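Retro notes, item 3 of 5
We never archived the inputs for the zinc ion complex last cycle. Fixing that now. Sequence and ligand:
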Amino acid sequence: MTSYNTSGKIPVPDTRIQYIRAGDEPAIFKAKWVIKDPWTLLENAGIAVAGGRITAVLDSVPSGPSVTDCGPGILMPPLVNAHMHLELSALADRLPLGKGFEPWVAALLKERDSIGIPGLARAARRAIDAFPGQGTGLVGEISTLGITRSLLSDRGMAGVWFHEYLGTGHPDLTLSADRPLSVSAAGHAPHTTSPDLLGFLKDRTQQRGLVFSLHVAESDAEMAFMAGNNRQWHDFLVQRGIDPSDWPVGNNNTPVMYLNDLGVLGPGTLAVHLLQVTALDLDLLADTRTRICLCPRSNQNLHGRIPDIPALLKRHLAPALGTDSLASCGSLSLFDEMRFVRQHYPVVSPADILAMATKNGALALGMADRFGTLDPEKQSEFIYLDSGASSRDQVLEKVTCHGTD
Ligand SMILES: [Zn+2]
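Structure as it came back at the time:
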């Protein structure tokens, strides 16, 4: 959907997507197709709104002055990008992809320092301004440098801003369950963040009823270190002033087993990536009702592999979708991410794919009371996709194949 010009990934708006934020006045929006949720499609239907909330989903729409006919396309819930790093937006097209994860990380740190905070903030702001044109209404943003919270709140974006920590210690946390943008904390990953710090972050966010997030089971280095077979990574941490000698790694543990032993899995934890999981890992994730988020395009670019979505769906793990950052992915568009999933997982149904980009994402971020479907009491925000579908079967095809990246 969103295309980019050749200089610096400045998004060119997709005129076929309209982001609708209804005001407080009572009104009705109708369209040829209304996707209430991935499994409920209505024809010639409408959405009634008032006071910033959806008040009713209408099977048939009376004519009247308060009715806006959006057209022959598709009215649907805003998309949810449950995992991204806006601070890396300025690194688009500046890093080596397909040459391994370690060279990518090294180049990322060097380039990020050379750009500086003002340049990183400018690119992040451009990426945020592109969200409505990409149909994105709710975000999970991971911030290492702390520069994107005000950028998101200035634009009135809804979501969770996660301040990310790694290493050791107990940082001073600023947490807030306010809407539309909550402030929570994230650990980086089990192989970069001490077990003590992970437990601290999990406890504090849980006390405030906030979602805690971290990357899990992504790189080969992480897998080997958690299993107790990566002395090189141990030495790398020591060089950076982090002593992992007393971390309970080893015994061929997987990252998921390790986190389960630490007690940081659970319904308030959002585990991102899960690129390498065993059958036991799937049991642990399902038993603890841990939320999960996948970023398949980024995984393909950085690791040359993609997660086993059918296995995760089979265990009812309700994966959300994210894009990671423009440093590892061609766009922050969920339409593009859905299209990638459609192309690479022919056995996954379009309804499941749309659920990943809407309902599951809202659940993952703890905001399903306001986003994810077009049900009464949800926020009166929706997107209109000006893409004609001549039959019911075509609607979800159009939605999940709309992206271009
Ligand atoms: Zn990430």
